[in-house]
Amino acid sequence: MADARQKTIPPAQGGGALIVNFHATPLNVREALGTLLTYLAPLGLPPDQRDTIQLVLAEALNNVTEHAYPAGAGGPIYLRALAECAELTVIIRDRGVPLPAELILSEGKAGRDPADLPEGGFGWHLIRSLASTLDHNRLARWNELKVVFSLARFAGGPACHQIAPKPSE
Amino acid sequence: MQLSARQFGPFHVVDIAGPRIDAAVAIAFKDSVRDLTDDIDGDVILNLGAVDFIDSSGLGAIVAAMKQLGPDRRLHLACLSPAVEKVFRLTRMDSVFTIHRSLDAALGDHGA
């Protein structure tokens, strides 16, 4: 079972972060996505943006389940989400095998002949197409993926004018 | 996830009851489509009207289902929600499948 650390899911609008720890299985990924959508619900995001967030994070979490823990025994996934200042920042960590950089950076397979059509390899293409910012790091024993979404019509969260603007990147 | 098939003239409509075709059900989905279409002839229309989420595993399962039909039978898709349509568009799989706005349109295109 996906185990939300908090007993009740804090609404994103209050400025709190959502932390979910769970064992890497497809059903737990589904449940964690449901928890995240509940967290985001008070923001009243446009459906298209909500769909995008769910899709990107589904691909990222499925990727951990299938590739970071290839032996099938799974392992821990840590997910932290924070909606703040017109951005949703999600950090996903796992203790699995290091991800090959080319998996993240390369364009996916693109077979067009129906006989050659890939049945996989779409995931990173979708993530790269839809995430505003994507950052992958190998920490000591962790893979860490940071995904940032710009929330165009974001109306909640703490008063962002009180936070010093970040230097331009 | 529950799938069922209905015959309309020369082809079959496969209805999907579940709201998600994701990694948790992708293999079961592919097997169910095969079981429903194995011993019938003609094109198959996948009715995605009840599906509001699909991930790349689900997309792969639909591609696999198309391949299972073999070279002489086509797999059509009908009633894609915006979220499902987006996945097909971004992966350019919308150019591989014939996609119909509604079931009526899919049936009409085939003179049924």
Automatic annotation (TrEMBL), chain A:
Domain of life, per lineage: Bacteria
Chain coiled-coil ranges: none
InterPro entries per the UniProt record, alphabetical: Anti-sigma-factor_SerPK, HATPase_C_sf, HATPase_dom
Gene3D superfamilies named among the record's database cross-references: Histidine kinase-like ATPase, C-terminal domain
Keyword Transferase appears in the UniProt entry: yes
Keywords carried by this UniProt record: Kinase, Serine/threonine-protein kinase, Transferase
Record flagged with keyword Membrane: no
GO MF annotation: an example: protein serine/threonine kinase activity
Listed SUPFAM superfamilies: ATPase domain of HSP90 chaperone/DNA topoisomerase II/histidine kinase
Name of protein: Serine/threonine-protein kinase RsbW
Source organism of the structure: Lutimaribacter pacificus
TrEMBL record, chain B:
Gene3D superfamilies tied to this protein: STAS domain
Record CDD domains: STAS_anti-anti-sigma_factors
Cross-referenced InterPro entries: Anti-sigma_ant, STAS_dom, STAS_dom_sf
Entry GO MF terms: anti-sigma factor antagonist activity
Pfam families: STAS
Domain STAS: 21-110
Similarity comment text for this entry: Belongs to the anti-sigma-factor antagonist family.
Name of the protein in question: Anti-sigma factor antagonist
Organism of this sequence: Lutimaribacter pacificus
Lineage: Bacteria, Pseudomonadati, Pseudomonadota, Alphaproteobacteria, Rhodobacterales
